[in-house]
Amino acid sequence: MTASMKRDNRMSASQSLISGGVAGVFSRTATSPLDVVKIVTQVGTFHSKRGFLNAFHSVYREEGLRAFWKGNCVACIRIVPYSAVQLATYNRFIQLHMDDLGRVSQWRAIVAGSVAGIVAALVIYPSDVIKTRLIVQNSLDPAYRGVLHALRCIYRKEGFLALYRGASLTVMGAVPFSCGSFLVYMNLDKLWGEPSFRFTPLQNFINGCLAAGVAQTLSFPFETVKRKMQAQSPVLPHYGGVDVHFTGMVDCFRQVVKAQGFLGLWNGLTANLLKLPTGTWSGPEPRTPRVERTEEIAEEQEL
């Protein structure tokens, strides 16, 4: 199975980035309550002790309606730089592996997307740490007064490396993420009972949600541990609200399984999956190669 690249000349790269960024801001803002519940559940703050639906009630009762948009400012700010780095890396990777006919294998296309996501995530990783800290803190008695104050406090009190705590999990989580995406995309023909080049926009939207759901479910334990590592700090009340105490990445995995069982690594998955439709539909993404079976296309053209 191969994938071909078709350049969309209706918008320039900057126009595409800006329009995607605007869509991303609306999407992030609309799903911010789900993001807040997901992260407090992953970290294990007191809000999440009674399950997914009760976490909404707990956040509202303890901190008010505005608490559902904690960290949304930094989440929106990071969209454009993340997307710019992601697009540049993705396009460069594709160009390096494209044949003379402008095609790449589906596996290389998926790897390109994963590599681009890793590079972009690492470049702006400090903003992700700040976002987590702003979300897990009590907004009525905050340790951080905003994005810049959080950045300054973390750097001064915990050092530069604290801004990259858990970054290695971004790389490790890309492996099951890529495998999950590849597994789904390689079986789309069987799922729909027709070749992929005939898929409608609705089918492609469903495909994106399905691939993202499988990929994120497989990689979710790595994100859970990453969030706990980002949130834990000896200079914050209750160590940042993390529900287990640990000395490193491996110990964090061990302590979560010991305290909550293996499924504890998937705490917050429900909120994450509910965000998928808006994330798939909007926001700037790398130009996705069109998947096609070359022999089926030739056969179609002959008919």
Question: Can you give keywords for this protein?
Answer:
303 residues; mainly alpha; 3 strands; globular; disordered C terminus
What's the SSE blueprint?
Elements: E1 2-4, H1 13-43, H2 52-63, H3 72-77, H4 79-97, E2 103-105, H5 106-123, H6 125-136, H7 147-158, H8 167-185, H9 188-192, H10 201-231, H11 249-260, H12 269-274, H13 276-281, E3 290-292, H14 294-302
Antiparallel strand pairs: 1-2, 1-3
Helix pairs in contact: 1-2, 1-4, 4-5, 5-8, 8-10
3D architecture notes:
Helix content is 65%, strand content 3%. The protein contains 14 helices and 3 strands.
The overall pLDDT, averaged over residues, is: 84
Q: What summary fits the major beta sheet? A: 3 strands, antiparallel
Q: Percent helix among the residues?
A: 55-70%
Distance between the termini: 21 Å
Which term fits the overall shape? globular
User: How does the helix and strand content classify structurally?
Assistant: mainly alpha
Order of helices and strands: EHHHHEHHHHHHHHHEH
Total strand segments: 3
Overview in brief:
By secondary structure, this protein is mostly helical. 65% of the residues lie in helices and 3% in strands. The longest helix is centred in the N-terminal third of the chain and has 31 residues.
